[in-house]
Write a structure and sequence with these properties.
Layout (H helix, E strand, L loop, with lengths): L2 H24 L6 E6 L5 E6 L1 H5 L5 H16 L9 E7 L5 E7 L1 H4 L2
Parallel strand pairs: 2-3
Antiparallel strand pairs: 1-2, 3-4
Helix pairs in contact: 1-3
């Protein structure tokens, strides 16, 4: 694959991840999610949530989506599959205290 093709693919992946973040925060399907932030290489996402709503819902599935997206981004960006990690931090909107941390792919091995 040429460098220009790779650059185009990476740009498309970035756009899709950002689009997914925006759609997820605006979706009524994830009522607890108030905001989602991420770093530039998609190795860390922070979900700001209403804790009570989050804990009584299936909104944690959003974490899985971003974990997979971050791992795919790293894979296409040349990171060794044995070394990539995506950390999802879940913080309570009221206190901004972290109450959950999910690390992919490690959490998949625990299941």
């Amino acid at each position: 694959m040429s460098k220009s093709q790779h650059k185009k693919i990476m740009k498309g992946m970035i756009e899709e991840i950002i689009k997914t973040v925006n759609e997820t925060t605006q979706s009524k399907d994830f009522a607890s999610l108030k905001d989602i932030t991420y770093n530039k290489d998609f190795t860390e996402f922070t979900l700001i949530v209403d804790k009570a709503t989050y804990e009584n819902s299936m909104d944690g599935l959003a974490a899985f989506t971003f974990g997979m997206s971050g791992m795919m981004y790293q894979l296409y960006n040349g990171v060794d599959p044995n070394e990539y990690k995506v950390t999802i931090l879940v913080k309570d909107q009221a206190t901004l205290k972290e109450f959950d941390k999910i690390v992919y792919p490690d959490s998949l091995k625990d299941k």
